[in-house]
Description:
Elements lengths: L1 E5 L4 H12 L4 E5 L5 E3 L4 H5 L10 E3 L1 H8 L2 E3 L2 E7 L4 E6 L5 E5 L2 E4 L3 E3 L12 E2 L4 H12 L5 E5 L3 H12 L3 E6 L10 H14 L2 E4 L3 E5 L6 E4 L3 E3 L2 E4 L3 E3 L11 E2 L2 E3 L11 E3 L4 E4 L6 E2 L4 H15 L13 E5 L2 E7 L2 H6 L4 E9 L10 E9 L5 E8 L3 H13 L4 H4 L16 H13 L5 E2 L1 H5 L7 E4 L30 E4 L4 H12 L5 E4 L2 H4 L5
Parallel strand pairs: 1-2, 1-9, 2-5, 9-22, 11-18, 12-13, 12-18, 13-14, 21-23, 30-33, 31-32, 32-33
Antiparallel strand pairs: 3-4, 6-7, 7-8, 10-19, 15-16, 16-17, 20-21, 23-24, 25-26, 26-29, 27-28, 28-29
Helix pairs in contact: 1-7
Amino acid sequence: MKVLVLGGVAAGTKIAAKLMREDRGNEVIVLNKGKHISYAGCGLPYYVGHVIENREQLIVNTPEKYSKLTGVTVMTETEAVKVDPKAKTVAAVNVNTGEEKTYGYDKLVVAVGASPVKPPIDGCDLKNVFFVRTPEDAIRLRDAIDTGDIKQAAVVGAGYIGLEIAENLKLQGVRPFVLDMAPHALPGFDAEMAEYVEGKLRESGIQVIAGVTVTGIEGDGKVEKVTTDKQAYQADLVVLSAGIRPNTAFLQESGLEMFKGTILTNEQGETNLPDIYAAGDCAMVHHAMTKKPAWSPMGSTANIAGRLIAQNMMGAGLRYRGALGTAVCRLPGMNVGRTGLTEAQALAEGFQTVSVVTVVDDKAHYFPGAGSFVIKMIADKDSLKLLGVQVIGAGAVDKVVDIAVTGIMLGAALTDLADMDLAYAPPFSTAIHPFAHTLNILMNKIDGKFETFTPAEYAAGAAKEYRVVDACLTPSIAGAPYVDLTTVEGMVEGLDPEEKLLLVCNGGKRAYLLQNRMKFYGYKNTKVLEGGITFQEVNA
């Protein structure tokens, strides 16, 4: 079987290599516009910050090495310019010479990826304006920083890559700030969780300025400032990380069905045209929970879908179960991760959502380096199905996310995930795993044993008629009556049992214990503030 693969980064090289492993008799040719294949795109921000020191480390495989390992023929600097589905041919141009050549195929894979969006503003061509999409981009950016001339930099785009770039600029002594037109940083996080991250970034020296539209970049030959619809900001360098666009313009006349330039595929990776498949950043998959089309421009999705497509091209008949929007990111002093639906998305999908925000230990509290996780867990109140998780902390947030991914992909309810025998030792976790701890708290909330206001409810004013009670380990809220739960053996002096009381502690645990005790002694209107003063500022 002759297979032509357009694109040679993540999805393309995965498909081609798997095809040859499935049947060494296949003839597989990869056409790639760039001179590099199989490079570590997700590692580029860390090259900028000298975390990854050598540029060679960014190249997973050279074309020569890959060909020897797999048996695939690789043709770099060869750009596909036209697909003829009826003739089963692809016209491609040598980017150096302009020479055009036609390639035939039995089956075709489109894995041409995506390119950074260049905003329609003046100044994008000034010196010290950069994208970070290819190894060459990262090399040029690091070289500019290494001159020592860059003091302040603007990053346009507060997604994962933009924030990782900001972190690595800061590592090199540059003062970064991040601009984004969205209301908050971190797509895929609920607003209160994103706000918490933004606050932590500010503390670390990275200002996130959300809700602004960049209108221009100005300077005399090189960057001097960035203008927005609100105000201008001084900058010596700009990194444009405001999204990507599929490289599919050359396919507009091919007959392939697309949505906003992204090729639509079914569960087997097939397009609407016979013998043509698509994968990677140029292809649309579907959401594992909602079954709706979903764009998941992630290296993980590219590899998972790519492997499945190669098997299907050999007759396996497998179905891709879909993506969950799973993501994890390292930021200054913290890691963030998420999977599944946000609370806002779950509500929009018609679920009877219930959520909880917890502050839990990430390992045994007495072990050196112990810290905490802030976890938001979302479920359907009727079916108890786990819908999503968001987690922030200095520790291994990916462990919490991956447990949630496993549960969601298996359609698990909270009751299915309770009491699991998860790994425990003091350097790694707590005796009740942070995921299980949060799940138990959410179940207590669903069962009515834990009555709360979520951070979002509190921010919306739901607790305005409640009197704040300080339940912290030591008095911490100015103007609020302090109650040490260990001393409560009956009615609390000065607190009426009919009064609406908001119990607030550092993270939520002591306030819950106090609520439990006060209920026993006749207090009828207590609420606990989820996340406590660790997560939000509270005034009496």
